[in-house]
Amino acid sequence: MSSKDQLATVRHIAGLLAAADGVAEVAGAMVRVACDLLGASGAAVGVLEGTGRMRLLAAAGPPPAPDPSPWPGLAGGGGGPLDEALAAGVPFVWPPSADGGVAAEPVLGDQPSWVVLPLVARGSMTGVLSLGYVTPQTIPPERLLLLEVVAHQCTAVLDAALVVEAERQEREILALLGEGTRLMVSEIDPDEIVSRLATLAVPRLAPWCAVYVLEGEELRRVALAVSEENPLVATLRSFSRVPVAASSLLAAAFRSGQVQVISRVTAEIAAAAYPALEPEPLLAAAEQGQWSALAVPVKAAGSVVGVMSLVSDRWRDAPGPALLHAAEGLAARAGIALANADRFRAEQRIAELLTRALLPTGEVRLEDFETAARYLPAGSPVAGDWFELLPIGDGRFLVGVGDSAGHGIEAASLMAELRSAARAFAVGGDGPRELLCGLDRLIATTSADALATALYGILDVATGTVTWSSAGHLPPLAFGPEGAGYLATRRAPPLGCRSVGELGEDVVALAPGSGLVLFTDGVVERRRGEIDARLEALRTLVEESWDQAADALADAIIGQLCEAPEDDCCLVVLKRL
């Protein structure tokens, strides 16, 4: 090839490379240049990963493109002349003799001659361009010089594409981890956070992501996200438990607390990891494509509590450093979510025990009166609301409802404290107003920032009258043959606002067939607002059902107005016969 032809070739190659956009297109253009313009029968481009391994970007001609190991320069180094040449940043030619007739075992399939060109950018090797020839070649100095010029062109374009890709990947990972962090500070249930973190990883990091937690001697899958079904995913989907002692990637990551990588999931590896699965379909599934797997320990408070796994057919060999960083970041956030879930469940169990211990459990029978009480927690059996039906002597009964601010143990503890004190005040002879004033003083001395609303009444069975008082609570709903309506109430702040002087006291007389419904705001409030409409819905329901027994009326209210409540629902129905 003349100097003029070589110059034209270089210019043509420069145009082809410049038209490529992105790492994949640049690598594809490089192998086409090698085969179409430089006469190679096969070519491959590899890029050096941060781990020191060479990753195949593109290949043309034999051997099969997905496997980089037969390509000279892309396989692991053995310290021979080829590796020495690449380390020095100079091309390596085989066979080394001038006539190309040196007998040697073919290295590149059936191609006895090849040239490996190092791609050196900014003083360090970025990758290699490996060219193979069907017939033995002689590479004269001028031909080798052309190849070096082309390698320099390829290096410049590929390096620029790699920089752009790295910057894009970094931005995507920062955005991904930012989304994960926003999930961590949201009010979503921790178990739901783990599930959404797995969804964040798919398909941005891999087409399969699962999170496992320790349960006894097994790792149980608690979250799964899949972007597309395939034979291997379909086979593994049904297997949600992995023994901790198993010979599997997941178990090894859990036991060691270290990241584990499998560059190719073979049928043998999958069979060892999932011994309960049938080997034949597992073998067929594993042979469909080249699958790589990554398992990242999930840690909470310094201890391994589970594993996050990613499975992909896009990595070819192993995940890159950026992807590994992203996976570790998501696993760390999953660990925080799981730790929060454990604390949440422990708190929930304690609060449930408090609820069961403190709320009334038996029926209260009153002469000439029916009573019914219902308590429906919002999402968990944790008491923030309470009700009261208590005989206090001389034919009098304490009735009431209340709502302590907040949820969980703090709300349950405040509920227990207020309810017990209210009983003591009532048994000691205090009326509803004095009782609520006492509760307000109690909060002032024990809980500086606690708040609660409450409505208490004292029923005199002999006269059929109820003397009642409210501290920031919704008014009682009176009903009877003539209809239903809310009793007028004096404006008064909740307990804890230190304004006991504003509390008032009222009396309502219940004729036969009439009664009262005391309720907490969970019955009528929703986050969307519309409290007036829901108060009217409760009034209408009670007006239409006033002639039912107290139990039936309470069930109707809970069934029609408290489906999927957003807050605890608590009510007392008192009806005179």
Structure explained in plain terms:
The chain is of the alpha+beta class and 577 residues long. It folds into 3 domains: 3-167, 2-Layer Sandwich (Beta-Lactamase); 186-347, Beta-Lactamase, CATH 3.30.450.40; 359-576, PPM-type phosphatase domain (Phosphatase 2c, domain 1, 4-Layer Sandwich), CATH 3.60.40.10. The protein is built from 14 helices and 21 strands. It has helices spanning 3-19, 23-36, 81-88, 141-184, 190-201, 231-237, 249-256, 267-273, 279-286, 321-358, 408-427, 432-446, 531-544, 550-561, and strands at 42-48, 54-60, 92-94, 113-121, 124-133, 208-215, 218-226, 241-243, 260-262, 292-300, 303-312, 369-376, 385-393, 396-404, 452-460, 465-471, 477-480, 483-486, 506-509, 515-519, 569-576. It has a 6-stranded antiparallel β-sheet. Strands 2-1-5-4-3 form a 5-stranded antiparallel β-sheet, sandwiched between helices. Strand 6 and strand 7 form a beta hairpin. Helix 10 (321-358) runs parallel beside helix 11 (408-427).
